[in-house]
Amino acid sequence: MRPPSISKIIEKYGGDLPHKLAVFLARETAAEIQARAPKSNDSAYADELIAKYFLRGKKEFFADRSERAVNASGILLHSGLGRAPLPQLPTRLSESYQTIAVNKLSGRRKERDGYSAKLLKCLTGAEDAIVVNNNAAAALLVLHTFSKDKETVVSRGELIEIGGNFKIPEIMEASGAILKETGCTNKTSIEDFIKVSGTQTALYLKAAPSNYSISGFVSSASIKSLSAEAKKRGIITAYDMGSASLIDLSNFGIKGSNLPGTALKQGADLVFFSGDKLLGGVQAGIILGKKNLIAQMKQNPLYRALRVCKLTITYLENILEIFMEPESIQNKLPLYKMLSESEDALRKKAELLIDMISDAKTGKTFYYEPDWAYAGCGSAPEKRIPSIAVKSLFKNKADKFVAFLRDRETPIFARIKQGKVCFDMRTVSQDELKLIAQAIKDWDAENL
Question: What is the structure's pLDDT at 1?
Answer without folding.
Answer: 58
